[in-house]
Write a structure and sequence with these properties.
With about 300 residues, the protein is an alpha/beta fold. Helix 9 crosses helix 11, helix 9 packs across helix 12 and helix 9 runs parallel beside helix 14. It is globular, with a radius of gyration of 20 Å.
């Protein structure tokens, strides 16, 4: 990844022991993830729209850039972690975007959760510029990002995956190539389907248990130790118990992801009867003004249906 000579319009770094990384998007997930790379010894230059996030990056030992173009100009690896397809397209395309300013041979790893087709189109456009692309969305939420235990599902060429693996292993515990371009996004869509249905089932169980007068904490503990146990239940148990819906992964984003999986499943002829219902429940919660809450706030929707909540 670092054996390619940069073209003459890009300055040369003196330390090439590790690839230089540009990080675009320093939100709830991106900030802790970029900091793990800094701790692992990578030189990270970042750009995002919020000055406080840039200040956090520099405090952690990274370098703040004033634009996407500046961030990517001398990068070997470019990582994007932004909310959705429109934002990926905004930072990738155009005169100030990644494709026009990254050097040939750079590897673009998009870790956003977007449509599979957006990833396929991006890879094709980047190839014309001599830029390699992987789609590498993640699962694990804010906690997984902070603990560097994310599951990373990757689409793209095997050789590019092999080159990127040391970088990705600094961010996650499970790093798997799932197939060609777009495959990572397809697997992420399936992941979001499973997570949403699981949260909904947990929320319904919580309301059922409370209305039955059971000790909720004890009940969730024993359920977590049996076949009903899941990473979702483990991660979200305290959210349910404390009605703490500070966003680790916002309803707005899960609504977007349910739209992705619904459209992708329709395109291949895969029915999602339960997923379709949960997608509508997520949409309803968002319409009621809870889009900025954590997706565990599906509990609020169940409570409203049962007359038990606000």
């Amino acid at each position: 990844m670092t054996d390619k000579l940069p073209d003459s319009s890009h300055p040369t770094r003196t330390d090439t022991s590790r690839p230089a990384v540009a990080w675009i998007g320093l939100g709830i997930m991106g900030s802790p993830m970029s900091e793990h790379l800094i701790k692992a010894g990578y030189e990270v230059t970042g750009f995002t729209l919020e000055q406080e996030k840039l200040d956090r990056l520099t405090a952690a030992g990274g370098t703040a850039a004033e634009s996407v173009a500046e961030a990517v100009r001398n990068a070997d690896v470019i990582i994007t972690m932004v909310p959705a397809s429109p934002q990926v397209e905004a930072v990738a395309y155009g005169p100030d975007g990644i494709l026009e300013n990254a050097r040939p041979g750079a590897l673009l790893i998009d870790m956003s959760s977007i449509t599979p087709q957006t990833s396929i189109d991006l890879a094709a456009a980047a190839s014309d510029k001599g830029i390699r692309v992987l789609d590498a969305p993640v699962s694990g939420g804010e906690a997984g990002a902070i603990e560097a235990v994310l599951s990373i599902m990757v689409g793209g060429e095997q050789a590019d995956f092999d080159a990127a693996k040391p970088v990705l292993e600094a961010l996650g515990r499970t790093v798997v190539r799932c197939g060609p371009h777009g495959s990572g996004q397809t697997v992420k869509a399936a992941n979001q389907l499973i997570v949403a249905v699981n949260i909904q089932a947990c929320a319904e169980a919580v309301v059922f248990l409370e209305k039955s007068g059971v000790d909720l904490e004890a009940a969730l503990d024993v359920l977590g130790g049996g076949l009903a146990g899941s990473t979702v239940l483990t991660r979200k148990k305290d959210n349910f118990l404390n009605r703490d819906f500070k966003p680790g992964f916002r309803i707005d984003l899960h609504h977007k992801d349910m739209g992705i999986v619904t459209d992708a499943a329709r395109a291949v002829g895969a029915p999602l009867p339960v997923g379709a219902v949960v997608a509508q429940l997520v949409a309803g919660l968002r319409a009621q003004g809870d889009g900025d809450l954590d997706h565990s706030a599906l509990l609020r929707a169940v409570e409203r249906l049962s007359g038990a909540g606000a």
